Amino acid sequence: MFPSAFDYIAAASIDEAIAAKAEGGDETRFLAGGQSLLPMMKIRLAAPAQLVDINRIAGLDGLERSNGHLRIGALVRHADLAASDLPSGAVASAAPWIADPLVRNLGTVCGSVAHCDPEGDWNSVLLAVGADVVARGPSGTRTIPIESFIDGMFTNALADDELVTEVQIRVPDGPSGGTYLKLERKVGDYASVAAATHIELGTDGSISRAGVALTSVYPQNLKVPTAEAVLVGEQPTDELYAEAAEAAAAAAEPRSDVRGTADWKRQVVRTYVRRGLAQAVDQATRSNGSR
Ligand SMILES: Cc1cc2nc3c(=O)[nH]c(=O)nc-3n(C[C@H](O)[C@H](O)[C@H](O)COP(=O)(O)OP(=O)(O)OC[C@H]3O[C@@H](n4cnc5c(N)ncnc54)[C@H](O)[C@@H]3O)c2cc1C
């Protein structure tokens, strides 16, 4: 199928993009990699009257570490992140698992974050590691914690005229590790189930900070504070990982579908969280604060 007719603007600057979006309201969409928006337009799930293409805006493709954060600009593609040695932990672990090489070459991390697909991978990773979304609108810039940014299935906290300019991921200063374990039916598929884990260790070897988040087992990417609370302040052990995994499985609300039954998905959550935590702690122990 073909999309319905739309107007197209190639914005040359952030201000121009925001002004066009403000004028067009919710009938206008930003176009980044087009890897979610264009398929939706082709099957008429989305029919925007106007697209504001942000791909020609200079300065949005920055990927750097500064001020204790990994900063990912709005035009950083999944493939850029996968090829970079700047990410660590769950972020580095997830990057090669997003879709397939074609999609990774065009799709952007920030587009994925803005899209808020509950089957998308990045928002689970960001919920586990701790991140902020930087949004710019006509009245300035604001920073939105990822927990507040995700508003539900395919909805976010952006105003109609706000553009995500970058995502900032906190880089821990002590020993840390993380994983993204994703089960997919075939290469390039969305997750049947995936689990992001993040661990930071204190000087006595206990867990000082923990992040656990799940993909495709809830109506949105799901952070699991009950699992995190099991871990924080404790010495890492296999029994502790199993207890946290049980909390994650209890929080999940998977649905039976073509990818598997709800019971099976819950069991995958249990296994992936336990396994992911063990790997994250192992990484943290080896990292000795170097990442
Ligand atoms: C075959 C296929 C397989 C896929 N598999 C996976 C997968 O396994 N895991 C996964 O996570 N994703 C998957 N995706 C989705 C892919 O990762 C997309 O790239 C991503 O979801 C959206 O990024 P984009 O840059 O393409 O955004 P676009 O498609 O351009 O935009 C998506 C939405 O976000 C908005 N938007 C984009 N950028 C911004 C911004 N800077 N500020 C505000 N709003 C913005 C757009 O207006 C639109 O509403 C798959 C896609 C395809 C086609």
| Radius of gyration based on Cα positions | 19 Å
Which strands sit side by side, in order, in the main sheet?
4-5-10-6-7
Strand content: 25-35%
Query: In terms of quaternary structure, what is this?
Result: single chain
β-strand number: 14
Q: What is the class of the largest domain in the CATH system?
A: Alpha Beta
- Overall pLDDT score: 96
Tally the helices: what do you get? 11
Shape: globular
- CATH architecture descriptor text of the largest domain: 2-Layer Sandwich
CATH superfamily of the largest domain: CO dehydrogenase flavoprotein, C-terminal domain
Task: Output the CATH topology of the largest domain.
Answer: Enolase-like, domain 1
Structural class: alpha+beta
Q: What is this entry, summarized?
A:
The protein is an alpha+beta fold and 291 residues long.
Characterization of the model:
This protein is an alpha+beta fold. The chain has three domains: 7-53, Uridine Diphospho-n-acetylenolpyruvylglucosamine Reductase, domain 2; 63-170, Uridine Diphospho-n-acetylenolpyruvylglucosamine Reductase, domain 3; 176-286, Enolase-like, domain 1. Helices cover 35% and strands 26% of the residues. It contains eleven helices and 14 strands. The protein has a five-stranded antiparallel sheet. Strands 11-12-13-14 form a four-stranded antiparallel sheet, with helices on both faces. Strands 1-3-2 form a three-stranded parallel sheet, covered by helices on one side. The chain is globular and about 55 Å long. The model has no long low-confidence stretch (mean pLDDT 96). The chain binds flavin-adenine dinucleotide. Flavin-adenine dinucleotide (FAD) binds next to strand 2, helix 2, helix 6 and strand 10. Residues 29-37, 39, 74, 98-99, 103, 107-108, 110-112, 114-115, 117, 120-122, 158, 163-164, 188, 190 line the site of flavin-adenine dinucleotide.
